[in-house]
Each structure stands twice: as structure tokens, then as C-alpha cells.
What we know:
Elements: H1 4-15, H2 23-31, H3 35-44, H4 50-59, H5 64-67, E1 82-88, E2 91-103, E3 110-115, E4 120-125, E5 136-143, E6 152-156, H6 160-173, E7 177-181, H7 184-190, E8 199-203, H8 213-222, E9 228-232, H9 240-252, E10 255-258, H10 263-278
Parallel strand pairs: 1-4, 6-7, 6-8, 8-9, 9-10
Antiparallel strand pairs: 1-2, 2-5, 3-4, 3-5
Amino acid sequence: MKPREVSVLKGLLRRKGIPQKSWARVVAGIIGGTPKTAARRLTDESILSLQELFAIADHFGTTVTALLQADFPEERQIPGTRKAVLHVGGGKWPCTVVTRKAASGRSDLFVAYEQGTDGQLVVCQAGDAPPGSKLEGVLSFHVDAFGTAGPLVVVLDDEETATLPLCRFLRIDAGFDAQYFKEPEGVLALLQSEPRPDAYILDWTLSRGRTSRSVIEAIRTVDAASPIVLLTGTIQSREKNESEIADLVRTHRIDVCVKPFPASIVAEKLKSMLDRQAQLPHVDRAPAA
């Protein structure tokens, strides 16, 4: 799915009656850079930074929140199939599966069952299913040829009901190994072990009136380079939250995603950030001494 911010920007330019041939020049004048660079970003629909969103909102006399409040298209799935993970011989691969409504029988070579609190669907050989699992017979499955457990992504959000679908999308559809935490203490403990996570998704507002600021600072103390995406629904006015988040963006090189959003937007942000990091071999994940 295309990054939503640039799509919204294009719609805003149209509503303002700005000719399409002038878009690159106008955007370059707002966010900086050359018209050629702006034209390439409009074509590629690369993700806008928080500072760029602020500049666009100021230029058109609106707010970041209003700028991003368009409806999202629904994420679609082929009818009759379900996303799952195939577990065979110690390996794990994303796949799509069709199961029977009836329970598994002796003739089934492969079965499916739900695993974990997020209800991830797992496909395995019949004899490998955990005892006591509610099994479904597998009619067919298709392995995503290039699927992989992928980079480890830590997700921190105290709203479990809203966050588990995001984790499931990251794990099944986007190919990440997503690990969910409801409280910051779990993330902080993980930072003391090796190997450390490859990326982090942190909700800004946590339980008991806390924010993710201390978690971001702890991550950057031990890891100077791994991508951090901050989820927030608190940017409503140019006051405390917005200033504090903007400061974190500048100081700790994080990206921001304003709620609500489809899971695919966060996945694309992570992939883009990890790709950029891979192209910079001089960047050390360890903090500066």
C-alpha cells in the first residue's frame, strides 16, 4: 500500500487548485530540497517526516491531525484463505491456508491451530501439533516463496486489543518477527540481552500516565541506529506533546505515525528505515562512547 502522507498531500494540492505541473516546485518550497527531488518523492510516494508534515500544515493553514484524518482503504485478503505460519522441521514460513470447518481427522497430513494470545494461525504436520490444541484439517496451503521470520520488531502498546492485529500483520503479512509487550519493563529487560531487536514500534501514551520517552532514551543508550517508529494519537495542538515528540525526532532519529493508520503503513515505514540503515555500512548500532 502506498504511504498515506504523500497521497493526502497530493489530494490537498488538488483541492487548492495547484496545477500538477507546479506540484514539485510548490512542495520543494515548503519542505526544502530541489524541485527534482520533490518530484521524485511525489512519484515514489516516500514517507514524510514529522517536521515536513508540520511545514505542510503551516503552509496550508491546517494541523497535522487534520491533514491525516482521511479514511483508510480496507486491507483485503483473497476470499476463502487465511494467513498463517507454516512450522516444519524447525523452520517457519508465512503461508496462506484453506481449512475444513470440521475438526481434524486421521487422514489429515497437515493441521492448523491458533497459537498465542494474538491468535496466530499455525500450520504443521499432524503429528507435530501441541497436545490439547483445537485442530482444523488443512485442505490446502501455499507457502510464500520469499517468506522469512524476518527482523525482530518489538511492539510496545498498553492497548492490547488494538495492537495484536498489528503484530499479526507484521508477522504474517509483512514477514517480521514481531514481539509484543504491554508494559515498558519487558522492553527494557530485552535491551539487556543479545541479540537485540532490529526495530521498535512504541506507542507514545502508556498506562498510568507514562509515555515512551524513557524507553526511547534507554534504546538509544544501547543502540544508536535501529529504527524506532512512534505511534501517537495525541498530536492535537502545538503544545506540550507535539514539542516533546518533535524534540525526540530531532535528538534520537525516530519516525512518527499518527493514529489511526493501517498496519501496512507501519510495515512500509519499518522496511524503508531498515533498507536505509543497510545501505549505510558506516552506521554502528552501538552507542557512541
